[in-house]
Write a structure and sequence with these properties.
Structural class: mainly alpha
Number of domains: 1
Largest sheet: none
Radius of gyration: 16 Å
Number of helices: 3
Number of strands: 0
Amino acid sequence: MSDESIAGRIERLVAEEHELRSREQVDGASSERLADDQAKLQAVELELDQCWDLLRRRRALRDAGADPDAAAPRDAETVERYLQ
């Protein structure tokens, strides 16, 4: 996976996140649709975190003179435990 493909995935996920946030406002009257949107939003946010983590680690490896392809996506639990 290249940096460009990861960045492209990030762009698509950000667009999906914006769409879901907009739909949340519209779907507010329907608790079932709102719950679906919120569940999808959580999944998108998690995947975004994972993509950003992978992209940062690839860049760090490259800057250190190592092979960026040595970086692999981290599991959700690891990424979600990072301190902001």
